[in-house]
Amino acid sequence: MAELNINERQAGDVTVLDMSGKITIGEGSVALRTGVRRLLEEGKKRILLNLGGVSYIDSSGIGELVSSYTAINKEGGQLKLLNLTQKLQDLLTITKLLTVFDTYDNEGAALNSFK
Amino acid sequence: MTAETTELSLPSRIDTVATAAAAVAEFVSRSGITEDAAFGIDMAVREAVTNAVVHGNRQDENKTVEVTLKSSPDAVEISVHDQGAGFNPEAVPDPTAEENILKASGRGIFFMRSFMDEVDWLIRPEGGTTVRMLKRR
Fold first, then answer.
1. How much is the average pLDDT of B72-100?
2. Please, are residues A9 and B34 in contact by the beta-carbon 8 Å criterion?
3. Chain A partners of B102 at a C-beta cutoff of 8 Å?
4. Does A1 contact chain B (CB < 8 Å)?
5. Interface of B with A in 55-94 (CB under 8 A)
6. Assign residue A25 a region: left if phi > 0, alpha if psi is -120 to 50, beta otherwise?
7. What CATH number does the domain containing A34 carry?
8. How many domains is chain A built from?
9. What is the edge-to-edge ordering of all strands in the sheet holding B129-136?
10. Is A101:A57 a contact under the CB 8 Å cutoff?
11. How many independent structural domains does chain B possess?
12. By three-state DSSP, how is residue A83 classified?
């Protein structure tokens, strides 16, 4: 079983990536980077990462979230985060990244925010 | 609660991070520490071992990472030793400073300091760095 599983679905013009597993150095971080870069190559620039199934993230995984955010912004797109676990929310708080990312705990509200 | 020590010698590969974390989790569960503290120890150990493998030993499989776990009635202490050239921990930029927030790396040591009660480094003149991390009960 892969360290990080990513399921892609389309909700209007927003691409939702449902993620489950671990985003850690090595396989998990690479899977996130590859998934986001592929969407950008396909011209999909409105991306919602559903992190509800992510059980663990390390500094490499957080770095990959930041890289994805800056790569998408550079292309004129938007990256938003959905369903942060309490632990991930805590990590984003202490790193001050909660002030950078647009985060939601309701998918409908997250999707509407892209409009 | 009696004192206990465990020592591990691990190869300089990325999968060593998970191996070390699993061993530490097992050690910590025997030491009767709280779930919150165990989470912090897990985070800190993964970051310390990542640094040892990636920055210290530069994934050279001829070099090993040594992990020492000590449990006492007062604290759990974890040391991670690599065979790298060493670095100045005080020179590592603050990842929460405005100019660094959007950097993709540089948060590992910050997490180690955030989750442990004491973190210090011993840079050996003959080569090799040991980071010692303490979590009080």
1. 93
2. no
3. 66, 69-70, 100
4. no
5. none
6. beta
7. 3.30.750.24
8. 1
9. B4-11, B64-71, B75-82, B129-136, B118-123
10. no
11. 1
12. coil
Percentage of chain B beyond pLDDT 70 is 99
Are B50 and A94 in contact (CB < 8 Å)? no
C-alpha distance from residue A48 to each of A1, A82, B11 (Å):
24, 7, 37
Q: Identify the domain containing residue B83 by its residue range.
A: 4-136
Average pLDDT, chain A: 95
Query: Is A74 in a helix, a strand, or coil?
Result: helix
CATH number at residue B105: 3.30.565.10
Both tokens assigned to A54: 């992510």
ipTM of the complex as predicted: 0.90
C-alpha span between A5 and B30 (Å, rounded): 32
How much is the pTM? 0.92
